[in-house]
Amino acid sequence: MRARARRHPGGQATVEAALVLPFVAMLLLAVVQVGMVVRAQVLVTHAAREAARAAAVDPDPAAARAAAERAAQLDPDRLTVDVTGRAGPGSRLTVRVRYAAATDVPVVGSLLGDVHLEGTATMRVE
Known about the structure:
Layout: H1 10-57, H2 61-71, E1 79-84, E2 92-101, H3 108-112, E3 115-124
Antiparallel strand pairs: 1-2, 2-3
Helix pairs in contact: 1-2
């Protein structure tokens, strides 16, 4: 009588896990990258508000840029601040902050390239 060979599914599960693991890792890295871009968008919006406040109380155009740089922990070389519409007291000015967010997460970041973000704020000149 011959002994039957038993099959153990453990080897098959290991192979399946090895095939799926790279896709799961890529998905996890993509989620981290999206989180970093969302954080940068929140910081850009905050920088626009702070720059608008500074431009509303100080006529110096450099004040808005300085306020935007202080307000957010963003790379100043990738940050652009534009102030438009400033006239006399009571007028409305608009500040537009643009930022090129770097995608630094390994593997995923090199596939995406930089993401261009923008935030605007409007405030009355005091």
